Amino acid sequence: MLFATSRFALVAFGLSLAGACSSATVPDAGSPDAAAASRPDAIVNADARAAISDTGVESDAGFPDADVVPDDAGPVDSGPVGPCGPLDKAQGPARFTAALASWVDRCNPELTPNEVLSISGFISFVAAPAFENVTLTYDATAAGQCGCAIADAPCDSLAWFRAIDACDATFVSTATTGDACSTDFDCPTRHRCAESQKDVAFVGLLPPTLCGQGVCQQFVALGEPCSDSVECAPGTYCNSDAVPEVCAANAALGEDCTNRPCVGDSEQVLILPPNQCSFTKGPATCMARGRAGGNCEMVACQELYRCDNNLDCQPMPGEGDACVTVFELNPSIIARELQMHESRFACRGNLGVGLGASTYCVPTSTTTGDAVCRTHPVIGQPCGIGADLSPFCAPDAFCRDVDPLTLAPVTSLCIPRRTETSTCGGRPLTTFAPNQECEPGTTCTFEVGTGMSRCLDTCGGV
């Protein structure tokens, strides 16, 4: 990962995905919710469902057109109970990935099925430690309901895991308010792991704390008292004009957001937020971010678009589209680093390598600047530096033979990241080559006594 974190640190953002537990309402015509229902390449198609099923999810993962058992199939007496039924702990990460994929697809119909899976796939990676943590009490029934709540969440409300009742009940911690924490899961129900500097993390997705330096802070719902030590749940804010201070509703689209947050802004939706508070000549107004053909003079474009010279939002290139990045015929290592950095952001839907990055600008030639957007390779697929190769793999893997010291051309394979105490190559990292071989929370460290390098706890066991 890009940043050193404790063993469970990435779970804080991966499963802190909820602003409301109510089901999505019927979308207005022309909205992302409505568009996804009719387009042919939606995540519910057979190929995308098959990709999800390869992860081990045996149910329909919440997709509305799941395969129907034929009449002559005989009685079914040992199959899954349904997408919202009790969830086996081993299937948890994959099920949550499917749930997030359903939400991402419905709210962002511009994406291809592979892009949806790539963007949402990080949750399986970061959720796994929580499902493996024996100190947390696990509720299978709540977990099944949590998956459906994530899939059904409104497009302008998906922020904190513990703000959804079913998700909050999935893992129970014995900690209390004020206890040290690294993730939300270290904390009791209706709490988050917070620090004094409010979520200054990269694009709002990284965990707020490193190595247990946060504290468990309570959050409360609409209409309840709030203070510096008691936060308001997503979708609400602490109204300091009230006596006593209470949690009030965020500004809706078209409303004044000068002194209150805007619904669907980056603090309320941590993946591809649809709205923002626009500070125009008059009062600040909650506005939808620009999509295809939208004007970006007063409001930013949604993250799948870029603002062109005419101040119009134009789609960024996606999977299979040509892309433009830095090119040199015989690049130095610095130029190669710059090319790798620029290629990460040349295609749409990129949230950072290892953080659910959707597509990467892959060169298709070593003698020209031709390139195309492709989703990151997964375990067992080719990777490397050269034509038709990405140096980065999906979040749970790393490109085995990429040397960050030389960044020399190489063809390799994506293999699983090494677990804690495993031996590792000891290769240092460079600024733009976050191809770490050790799992999050561990670092490849040379041990003087053994003469070997191993993946060791970054936080020294904290």
Give an account of the 3D structure.
- There is one protein chain.
- The chain has 462 residues and is α+β, with helices and mostly antiparallel strands.
- It has 3 domains: 11-67 and 82-220, no CATH class; 224-315, no CATH class; 333-419, Lipase, subunit A (Ribbon).
- Helix content is 18%, strand content 17%.
- The chain has helices spanning 11-14, 32-38, 46-53, 92-107, 113-120, 122-132, 140-152, 165-168, 333-344; strands at residues 137-138, 171-172, 180-181, 191-194, 214-220, 230-232, 236-239, 246-249, 275-278, 285-288, 305-307, 313-315, 359-363, 371-375, 382-385, 397-399, 410-416, 442-447, 452-457.
- The strands form 8 sheets. Strands 3, 4, 5 and 6 form a 4-stranded mixed sheet that branches. A 3-stranded antiparallel sheet has the order 15-17-16, with no helix packed on it. Strands 1-2 form a two-stranded antiparallel sheet.
- Helix 4 packs across helix 5 (113-120).
- The longest helix is centred in the first third of the chain and has 16 residues, at 92-107.
- It is globular.
- The chain starts with 10 loop residues before the first helix and ends in a 5-residue tail after the last strand.
- Residues 1-81 and 196-209 have low confidence and may be disordered.
